Amino acid sequence: APILLADYRPPAWTVEQVELTFDLAIDRAEVDARLALRRKVDEPIRLNGEGLELIELKVDGRVLSEGEYILGDGMLEFTATGDTCVVETRVALRPAENTAFEGLYLSGSRETGFLLTQCEAEGFRHITFFPDRPDVLSRYTVTLRADKARFPVLLAGGNPDGSGDLPEGRHWARFVDPHPKPSYLFALVAGRLERISRDHVTADGRRVALHIWAEPDAIDRCDYAMDALVRSMRWDEDAYGRNYDLDVFHVVATHDFNMGAMENKGLNIFNAKYLLADPDSSTDDEYRHVEAVVAHEYFHNWSGNRVTCRDWFQLSLKEGLTVFREQSFSADMNSAPLKRIEDVALLRRAQFPEDAGPLSHPVRPSQYSEINNFYTATVYEKGAELVRMLAGRLGPEGFRQGMDLYFARHDGQAVTIEDFLRALGEANGIDLMPYLAWYEQSGTPRISADGRYDAAQRRYRLTLRQRTPAVDGQAARRPLPVPVRLSLFDPSGQATPLRLEGEAAPDGVERTVVLHTAEQVFTFEDIAQAPVPSLLRGFSAPVILEYDYAPDELALLLRHDADGFNRWEAGQQLAGLAFDDARDGRQQGAALDAWTTVLAALFHDPAVDDALLAELLTPPGEIELVERQPERDPQRIRDARLRMLGALAARIGVPALRQRYDALSAMARGDLDAASQARRQLKRRVLDLIALASPDDGRALARTQYERAPAMTDRLAALSTLALADADAAAEAIAHFRRRYDGNALALDKWFAMQAQLPGDSAFDRIRSLEADPAFTLKNPNRVQALIGTFARANPTGFHRTDGAAYRWLADRLLAIDALNPQVAARVATAFNGWKRLEPVRREAAHAVIAALSSRRDLSRDLTDILGRVALG
Ligand code: ARG
Ligand code: ZN
């Protein structure tokens, strides 16, 4: 039965103090726990525990015999008489057999690998018996014991509190965390690791030792992460007044991790993909991801750890907020408009399809059967958009005051979204509770806008309407508060001063109006000519805007809009219309013509910087374009998109493209500064256009670029262009890359993923031969995502074969993955999300496979949950 938000009850017993002692080894570990409990409600003590071998249970010093407790169904239950009691358990674990990477497990080989833990959301119950829920906050003392030669490094969260040798070549180390925390933030690491270190003095004067740990072959790839960590700490001190609160901060890299990274108190653990970086094997995007994820996990120390979630329904309280903080940091460190473009593109690519399909759920779900399946784009990315809306509503100072109150009022507590809205609101004397509806309703709202210009009255009336498509099982939709930031442009491209009806004087050329009801009219006075509205500037709300722009209106915004985001957005909208032309065979269509004409002009405009130009030259991807189709035929979408890009290449002309490409190549170095990154981005777009317009040129340039590339970004881009242009010509380079990076797991992941994306009929055979590569394994989540995840999610023409062969293959692989790692299986299975909107032949094929798979009774709860929801369509 699902768990319901409405059923929430506070814990019957809390744990004030936890003492854990681990005897660690690869095959078998023993865990002694001593819990000091306090009664809140007159009920038995119930402790969660999964897959634990119980060796001994004592209550207040007395061993309980078998008849005195009940053990079953993931729960240990017994009674206690007083209002406080001390429970002691001893359990045994089998780390090397733990392929699910939840709880205590082994990363790497038995000989050289290391032990680590992952507890969020409910992994701690795989380590010891405990009330494993985020509203039980306890002080932890952790002692680790292990063989000194095999496990020279012993780490746990908290401040170090002694270490020393033991008989028989063993040693111990103890850690005390003074800050009460929920069990999901517990972590330990033990093994042969190396470190780089730096000191940081916080704004409030604490000297903190920072250590980043990695396996010996990776330790020289941690410097960038260390710089990013120091930048993050400074930024949180300045932007939010938040200081770190322990004497040490550890960060550890592992190649075996289900998610991106984890904010365990004082001991963050990272998927190596988001921590290691070096020019030879990392792309520019990866450098930015490392910076962002390091910041994200660090920022959790306040938004998540010091103030945590009451229950898992509130997950976005920490994740949406922390993604927003991370986005703001990245915008400050890099280009703010480009960051906004990147964030919105991700929202549209990942969250909009999720919210439009069977896995749609509110940012705060009201029920779940497996919480691991709710670490979604909706909880993270849409959740961040909601915080951004609130921040926009309050303004920078008001938002900071609100956050100060939130942190001060709730420090050391486990709270709810309502608490967050109340603190932000009360600090500003504003009622923000109407925004709760955004957290409770799923689906992407559609805002339709309609502008009427009255020349006689010199008035512009803008009508805004909202509607959110109904979703089964959800009550009637309430109207949401929707902030719409806007400007009005005159036909020459000038922004007009804005005076709303009833106001004495105009107030700037940009305003935010808030739509509170189903429909509202905003009247602007003194407008001299029919304007072109620039709406939802900066993407001021996570909605789909419907406004019937003519191509030349979008072209005007694309040329003149000063808001970098909306300029790009006008280009995306125009590209959407151009795509319709290309798909329907209108090679002379007005939109296609306007899109290619403006971009060709911007291509030569020195005022447009390389980075923005690269973004402008990138139309929406095949996955976003699905939204423009009533029924999805991936091949048609791809063909039409290529036709529109071909028309663009022809309009700019091969000589101009070549000239630009040569100029960018002449400046190519491996440097990481923004200008160098922008040049590489643009070069990649230009090379792709050349390859479309003149395949022979494209092939030759790509081969040379591959050979001479000073860094991974150029190398990988060239390889991918070459492979798209001519599989035979690419074979040699692909084999070369494989040899060059043998043993470099992260580089090989890119090699698998690049090939997994190559489109068309031959894709499926390619995948199957890649599966036979000795470096491929179903046991490593990154490898599975690189090959199987990429193929199923990012290769629409290859995966959605009309014969359904790839669907059957995926079902088969899901069974094998599920037996090893349910979380990974469930995540890969979300690739079936959009099956109902496929054209009939593919839809039938997909449905048959999903129905057969979801009727099986031997699947994990994770996979059963995803398939069950997907099957309903
Ligand atoms: N809290 C982690 C983050 O920073 C993610 C952990 C997800 N874990 C999981 N089992 N789903 O976003
Ligand atoms: Zn997070």
UniProtKB/TrEMBL annotation:
A UniProt-annotated Pfam family: Peptidase_M1_N
Domain of life: Bacteria
Protein family membership: Belongs to the peptidase M1 family.
Keywords of the record: Aminopeptidase, Hydrolase, Metal-binding, Metalloprotease, Protease, Zinc
Record's catalysed reaction(s): Release of an N-terminal amino acid, Xaa-|-Yaa- from a peptide, amide or arylamide. Xaa is preferably Ala, but may be most amino acids including Pro (slow action). When a terminal hydrophobic residue is followed by a prolyl residue, the two may be released as an intact Xaa-Pro dipeptide
The protein's Enzyme Commission number: 3.4.11.2
Gene name, Swiss-Prot/TrEMBL: pepN
Species the sequence originates in: Luteibacter sahnii
Name under which the protein is recorded: Aminopeptidase N
Domain Peptidase M1 alanyl aminopeptidase C-terminal: 552-869
SUPFAM superfamilies: Leukotriene A4 hydrolase N-terminal domain, Metalloproteases ('zincins'), catalytic domain
Domain Peptidase M1 membrane alanine aminopeptidase, chain residue ranges per copy: 224-432
